[in-house]
UniProtKB/TrEMBL annotation:
Domain Methyltransferase: 48-140
Organism domain of life: Archaea
Protein name stated in the entry: Class I SAM-dependent methyltransferase
UniProt cross-references to InterPro entries, sorted A to Z: Methyltransf_25, SAM-dependent_MTases_sf
Protein source organism: Haloferax namakaokahaiae
Keyword Methyltransferase among record annotations: yes
The protein's Enzyme Commission number: 2.1.1.-
CDD domains hit by this protein: AdoMet_MTases
Keywords: Methyltransferase, Transferase
Group of enzyme by EC: transferase
Entry annotated with the keyword Transferase: yes
One Pfam family named in its UniProt record: Methyltransf_25
Amino acid sequence: MADPATVAQSFYTRWARVYDTIARRAPWIHAVRTEAADALSLAPGETVVEMGCGTGANLSYLADRVGPEGTVVGIDFSPGVLDVARRRLAAYPNVHLVRADATDPPITDADAVLATFVSGMFADPAAVVSSWTSLVGSGGRLCLVDLARTTHPVWRSLNPLFRALVRVSAPPGSRTMRDSPTELLDARLVAAHRALESACRVTHSATHALGFARIRSGVVQQSITISDS
Ligand SMILES: C[S@@+](CC[C@H](N)C(=O)[O-])C[C@H]1O[C@@H](n2cnc3c(N)ncnc32)[C@H](O)[C@@H]1O
């Protein structure tokens, strides 16, 4: 069987246009993307990297904040979503799209990193997030946005529906893993956000979309390396 990364790349390439519609038109998504970009406290002229940028739904929010003298780098490993992003961002000369692995990005310095709806796709999210804290260094900013089951007392009743949506929308490889895709998503969100908390002074923490979407951002105090063992 193909490895999970290859499966994910063909999945996101095949469904790039459908994904793009959801990524831009979900009812709560504009508020989340605005809040995440704001949470990075970007200044004109800075460099910001989006890991797993998909079809580029966040990139104009970032480009508007760093201005024409700043730099935005969008990294994704799926060629289909990058094609959509390239068309969308053609008018922004300072947005650079790179096909690469976000767990080992080909960039050594940046002021800030954003990753939205991606942590759940990493086998070891804590290690990946801690490597991003090293990338931005002390004083750099990091913002994660991820989906998981809600803990909201009213909306918890919708968790079975969320579970069903995750099951149908997860790249095929994740449906055969030992844990259900939803449990895996929850565990990976917790690992990623804990890694951010361990290395950063948390500057923003909020939930959206009935508690299903979590935003957490921080300023790196010390970059650390976390291993799974
Ligand atoms: C759910 S989409 C999110 C896209 C975008 N961040 C957004 O908010 O719309 C996840 C994206 O992460 C990308 N991705 C997952 N693992 C990756 C990795 N290791 N390196 C680069 N891209 C990755 C996928 O190709 C896909 O485009």
